[in-house]
Design a protein that fits this description.
The protein has helices at residues 8-13, 16-23, 27-45, 81-92, 118-134, 138-141, 165-172, 298-310, 324-330, 369-378, 447-451, 473-482, and strands spanning 96-99, 104-110, 113-117, 189-193, 198-202, 224-230, 236-246, 258-260, 269-273, 279-285, 293-297, 317-321, 336-341, 357-361, 364-365, 384-391, 394-401, 415-417, 422-427, 436-442, 458-462, 465-466, 486-492, 495-501. By secondary structure, the chain is α+β, with helices and mostly antiparallel strands. Strand 4 (189-193) and strand 5 (198-202) form a beta hairpin.
């Protein structure tokens, strides 16, 4: 074997340290470690040395600034998605207004007309009723209209009711008639349709703009839509989704004229708009005890608004004319079929039934629907109307009490305690939580309201004397005549309270 002791590598291997590393197979790792250590030492020695580019091309190019979002309304929802729907909401939210005492959202669908739920109209009617109870017309409350006596309400001196003082003072001025109590605001209510669950309000055309309505035929299925509404504080919100179907006719509650993919929530009305902010339809809250909203396409909205404008009176009895073959088989020359009876409008329950054929109404034969409605409208609310009907094959005669124009049952007149700013009404209808004298209204800031009396409280006693039957009206009349501080025991929910009422001087 050739001796390689004279070779430079051979001489290095003969070194004790290298020979030991070589035998233990650590020579290569040691060499690598020395190289890395040398690189680190070199970098540490030259770390403060500045390095300049040799030419302009070697300089790093600066990064471009981020592109700002476009301020105008994008037409591609997939780009800038959040910003797009936010801008769409801002464009249309002013066309949704708050109406009624409960600030219910309503959609402006025609110039000066806004559509919303029936609950908003019902709230207006209830508010008007409360205000009329605690603000009677001067003709009823003026002291000169009734003689002084034990049963007369004295309205002079220190015992005069505060809420009538101005009326009495104006009545005493010579040659100047007493001003009537201003009519409570109607909030622009035009009509309420309880069957459809809708109400129509008039709005100021100078303050709001209307939607552009898109016919259902121009709304392709699957296109993007947004549900825009407001809460009762006025804050707007939008929910993106897709249009499933839009038709010019509604086939029924189970098959509405407008179907969208997103969930619609919130009180009152919600506007369903396309990407350009045009109105495809309206979703209307059905109220408590029901699920979902009524979905109306733009065409159905126009037709419903036109019908609500023509609606002048709620019909407690809905009638229609009989076909000629039907009349011949029944042997009748005339008569009208009762299609629907609103039982809730009558107190007590009506004696007429759906399916009856009215032969005579108020002593005269009936032949046409128009004649029947005109004669019914001419009768006074609360009048006893005699009738003759055909029920099956039997002819029956009877009478019924006409309800009011809003299809509300007539009840006993309320008790108005004007010295205390309080009105009570006997509640004995079926379904009432508690039978008794219920607080119908209070004057804001009046003695009763200041003492803590609230609407719907049930009055149990007056100065310890029970008031649990209709005959307690005499107790309240005596309380009003005295005009003295009174202890009123009331029940609210499942709690009883005793409140001190001090009449105004």
């Amino acid at each position: 074997m050739k001796d390689d002791a004279g070779h430079p590598v051979g001489r290095l291997i003969r070194l004790p340290i290298i020979r030991t590393l070589y035998r233990r197979q650590l020579l290569f790792p040691a060499v690598v470690a020395l190289v890395v250590l040398g690189v680190l030492v070199q970098g540490a020695l030259v770390r403060d040395m500045s390095v300049e580019a040799t030419n302009q091309q070697d300089r790093p190019a600066p990064l471009p600034p981020p592109a700002p979002r476009r301020p105008d309304l994008e037409k591609t929802p997939l780009t800038y998605f959040d910003d797009y729907w936010s801008q769409l909401q801002e464009r249309v939210q002013d066309k949704i207004v708050l109406v009624g005492p409960d600030a219910t959202p309503a959609v402006v669908v025609m110039p000066g007309l806004a559509l919303t739920s029936a609950a908003a109209g019902e709230a207006v009617l209830a508010e008007l009723d409360r205000q009329r109870l605690v603000n009677p017309p001067p003709a009823v409350a003026a002291p000169g209209d009734e003689p002084a006596g034990e049963g007369a309400l004295e309205t002079s001196g220190s015992e005069a009711p505060a809420i009538e003082a101005n009326v009495a003072d104006e009545a005493d001025e010579a040659d100047e008639p007493a001003e009537s109590t201003p009519e409570p605001p109607s909030y622009g209510l035009i009509a309420v349709d309880r069957d459809r669950g809708l109400s129509l309000f008039g709005v100021d055309t100078t303050q709001v703009t209307i939607f552009e309505l898109i016919p259902p035929a121009l709304a392709p299925s699957g296109s993007y839509v947004g549900a825009v509404t407001r809460d009762r504080s006025g804050r707007a919100a939008i929910a993106p989704g897709h249009l499933v179907a839009a038709r010019a006719e509604s086939l029924g509650p189970s098959d509405p004229s407008l179907v969208v993919s997103m969930s619609v929530a919130g009180p009152g009305a919600t506007a369903i708009v396309n990407l350009d902010g045009a109105l495809l339809g309206v979703a209307v809250d059905r109220g408590e005890g029901t699920l979902g909203h009524s979905m109306l396409s733009s065409s159905v909205v126009l037709r419903v608004v036109a019908e609500l404008q023509r609606q002048t009176r709620c019909r407690a009895l809905v009638v229609s004319e009989l076909d000629m073959p039907v009349r011949e088989l029944l042997g009748l020359d005339g008569g009208l079929l009762i299609e629907q009876v609103r039982d809730a409008a009558f107190a007590p329950e009506p004696s007429l039934r759906p399916g009856d054929v009215i032969l005579e109404w108020d002593g005269e034969a009936v032949t046409t629907v128009e004649d029947f409605e005109n004669r019914s409208d001419a009768l006074a609310t609360g009048a006893l109307v005699r009738y003759r009907v055909l029920r099956g094959r039997r002819r029956l005669a009877g009478g019924t009490i006409l309800p009011d124009r809003d299809c509300r049952p007539l009840d006993d007149p309320p008790v108005q305690l004007m010295r205390y700013g309080l009105a009570l009404r006997w509640a004995a209808q079926a379904g009432a939580e508690t039978t008794g004298w219920r607080v119908a209204a209070t004057v804001p800031g009046g003695p009763a309201a200041t003492a803590g009396v609230a609407p719907d409280d049930v009055v149990l006693a007056v100065d310890g004397q029970l008031a649990d039957d209709p005959d307690a009206r005499a107790v309240f009349d005596q309380m009003e005549r005295r005009g003295e501080p009174t202890l009123l025991t009331v029940q609210r929910a499942d709690r009883v309270r005793i409140l001190a009422l001090v009449p105004d001087e």
